[in-house]
Amino acid sequence: MSRTHSCEPTMTDEGVVWFCRNGYWILEAAVPDEINRRALDYLASNTNGEPSEILQEDWFVDGVILNPAAAGAVRSLLGDDFALPTLMANHRGRGPAKPQDWHRDSGSLHGPALNYLQVFYYPQDVPPEMGPTELLPGSHFLYQREKHMAHYGAIKGGVLTAAPAGSIFITAYNIWHRRAARTAPAAARLRHQLKKKKRRTPHPRRDRIVNPEVDGATAGLVGDRRGFADGVRDCVDAAEMYFWLCGKIDEFHYLGGQSWPADILLSKPAPGSDERARNRRRFGVPGDITDRRSR
To answer: Which of 105, 128, 278, 283 is the most buried (most CB within 10 A)?
Structure first.
């Protein structure tokens, strides 16, 4: 049976909305240098591509798996008592190499549910020339068969996760990603990237750092941002995921056209004004979608 972990959330509603829209969250230099050095020493003598035995090391569990910043972010997205990993992968790389093909990991689902997260850890500095993972923001809502993804090369808007030692980044399980090109010479330092999965155990609800003054139905969701999806589908999909994470998916209704959350006009009138109230009704903005809970 998987072990679970209980801790306090560290992400606000606004941060969760940002994750819904982009599909990733980066924590730079979250792990102390001492833990990074121990991880590198361990990996130097454990060259297996799946060094899952490291999950039995207390220093690694406390410093990386249960790292307060990372665990708090995972808890904000997966809820309390999320399942801890039982497998660990290490993506090692040295010397020049072409970029990987874009792909989603096996078992990816398409839809608003967020039951799994991928969590990546760099125990050493990873500059662009060492081939960091490249992410495509918002692509966790793009469905494509993997064999049809391989022909894409560089995509404008991709994000390189180049970061200092001790950095952790968290992604929606089904986000498009690839290893970027490695241009560092063969004599350069070996790049390690430890990857694990975290799994939800409770039903979703709005259980994170909540500002009772923030209107969760509109904050960060309304807009005319154009991503990789057709038309305004990117903000609609993000709103649907946000509703799912609040445990209110049955109350999500997109009316189509210029209705909420696609219409930027909803953010124009001052809060509390008659015009804003009329716009909310006109464009299908939901009411108070969640139990208001402050921390």
So the answer is: 283
49 closest CA partner among 86, 106, 91:
91
Q: Can you give the pTM of this predicted structure? A: 0.89
Q: How many CA atoms are closer than 13 Å to the CA of 207, on its beta-carbon side?
A: 16
Q: Is 273 exposed, middle or buried (0-12, 13-18, 19+ CB in 10 A)?
A: exposed
pLDDT at 39: 98
Assign residue 58 a region: left if phi > 0, alpha if psi is -120 to 50, beta otherwise? alpha
Residue identified by tokens 């989603």 is 104
Higher local confidence (pLDDT), 68 or 272: 68
Closest CA to 86 of 112, 117, 59, 51: 51
CATH numbers and ranges of domains, the chain: 4-199 (2.60.120.620), 212-288 (no CATH)
Q: What pLDDT, in 10s, does the model give residues 11-47?
A: 998 899 999 999 999 999 999 999 999 999 999 999 9
CA distance 210 to 106: 34
